[in-house]
Amino acid sequence: MPKIKHFTVFFLLCFLPTGILPANGVKRSGSEQGDVYEDFVFIDNIKSVRIHKKEWEVSYPIIKLNSGEQIYLSFDDLEGDVKNYSYTVVHCNADWTPSNLFPSDYIDGFYENPVRNYRFSFNTFLPYTHYTLTLPNEDIDFKLSGNYVVKVFKNSDPSDIVLTRRFFVNESAVHINAVARQPLLPEHRKTGHQIDFTVSHPDHPIRDPYSEINITVTQNNRWDNALTGLVPTFVKTNEIVYENEEKNYFPGGNEFRTFDIQSMRHQSEFVRNIEFGNDGFDVYLTDDRSRKNNYRFHHEEINGKYVIRTRDESNDATDSEYAKVHFSLSQETPFDNGDVYVMGELSHWNFYPWNRMEYNYETRAYELTMLLKQGYYNYKYVFLEEGSEKADAELLEGNFYQTENDYIVYVYHREPGSRYDRLIGVQITNSARR
User: Fold this and answer.
1) d(Cα 299, Cα 296) in Å, to the nearest integer?
2) What superfamily in CATH does domain 175-253+403-430 come from?
3) Domains in the chain: boundaries
4) pLDDT tens profile 73-119
5) Of these four, 143, 255, 265, 368, which has the most CB atoms within 10 Å of its CB?
6) Cα–Cα distance between 48 and 191 in angstroms, integer?
7) pTM for the whole structure
8) In 52-189, which residue ranges form alpha helices assigned H by DSSP?
9) Which among 131, 25, 114 has a CA at the least distance from the CA of 73?
10) What is the distance between the alpha carbons of residues 165 and 149, in angstroms, rounded to a whole number?
């Protein structure tokens, strides 16, 4: 449990939590084969990075192999000029370490390609350049299923990385029947969800499910609390059953907090004030409080995602303004063994100095200012204990079984002698929809 500070805080230099290094787009473990790719942005002027299925803005970045479906990546460069950006894709194992494959094994086409599509912002206070990329395209196509990372870099130098983003190419070779339900264990019945699922594979031979199959389950595409290493409960003819009341459990959390800044002319719910000055727009959200003992009944939210929208102009991508959004979370005294973060897709589900809150002794609140593009946003407050890579949402948001969450089950298969993990099935289930 977090401890409370009762003395003056010293302001430390900005740092990154354990396991997240900004040098090259990966988490270091001592060797190139041990690197773990994460979603990360390495340059301050890169904002509003989005990745999803093309033409479905709130979808998860999952496409089916050889289906014609495409991944859509977009981002803004706030320097407002034209950069020489290029990209490449890396095939990864189930744990996001690089596969032991050559690029020619998993792609058709060119390994490195330019980012050609860009547009300048129009009549915005803060100028920016909006870049877009679709995958696969005329330069590159995927030959294998699995985990992939797209890396964007500058000046034809693959080591000068701008951003990394994970996505998935799925074979759909098996059928997954998954359900998120109220847990069986008494200590969890009021606080979370148990994810039970069965993998049916009548047309896909699996000799030894215990050694060949690797499972990952995520909650709303959040990776710091993902479930991995799940072991089958039962193995039947052409079926693998995962029903473990201890291992298959997620804390439910609370419904996401929301705010709407699609218009800079009119205040919406949870927006206290909008000001325009010499350095642009400032949006002040209403003061937040801990919801640990207060479940917020289901309302319109999108499970931590955000969408870029403007009601003031005609084009969402290039006419939307950027604003300094001010968050405030009331807290009588600060915690002394960790930090509070604003978390969601708006922070790439990650922990940076720019989404870490600072305690203000005068206002008795944690405060943060983030530069965000016009749109509709979801977020939560989480506590990251020193030395931990898994954030705790219960402290400030509470855990409730009524909470509506998406749960995504990924099934990987590595056959004997194979050099990579095939993604043979993906299933999305929801705790509020059976």
Assistant:
1) 8
2) Immunoglobulins (2.60.40.10)
3) 26-170, 175-253+403-430, 257-397
4) 999 999 999 999 999 999 999 999 999 999 999 999 999 999 999 99
5) 255
6) 33
7) 0.91
8) 103-106
9) 131
10) 5
